[in-house]
Specification:
mainly alpha, about 140 residues, single chain, globular
């Protein structure tokens, strides 16, 4: 429960900053990472296993950020990394599926409303937040 509150709070703050300034707040991400690590450490062996397996998708996204020259921003990738450490790999993959579905729908809406183009960038953290909230509420 505590990890869920920390996760939603951190993603909520980062969503606001991402929408307003198109960046991820590093201090919030740092506090979020410290809280996740402390929580997993308190859980012992099982918590540490979940922490390290949950890092795998985040590491992949960091690699994709590098390869695509931040087509996926480093800030988004770092939050995905911390999110995975917080919720574990299975839940993280479900959240990412929801987030990408929501962002895809948003991209189509922008294209149809003629407010965007194929190369347009938009904040991704709000979609991570939406996926996380839905995952917490319905699973």
């Amino acid at each position: 429960m505590f990890q869920n509150i920390v996760t939603v709070t951190a993603l909520g703050i980062c969503s606001y900053v991402d929408l307003r300034y198109r960046k991820v707040e590093k201090r919030v991400a740092g506090v979020y990472a410290a809280a996740v690590f402390a929580g997993r450490l308190a859980e012992g062996g099982a918590g540490m296993t979940a922490l390290f397996t949950g890092l795998v998708p985040g590491i992949l996204f960091l690699f994709l950020s590098f390869v695509t020259r931040q087509g996926i921003g480093y800030g988004d990738s770092i939050l995905i990394l911390i999110l995975g450490a917080s919720v574990g790999i299975e839940t993280e993959l479900e959240i990412l599926l929801l987030a990408f579905a929501f962002s895809g729908i948003w991209a189509v809406v922008l294209l149809f409303r003629k407010r965007g183009n194929v190369r347009q960038e938009f904040p991704f953290v709000p979609f991570l937040l939406a996926g996380t909230v839905l995952e917490i509420l319905f699973v």
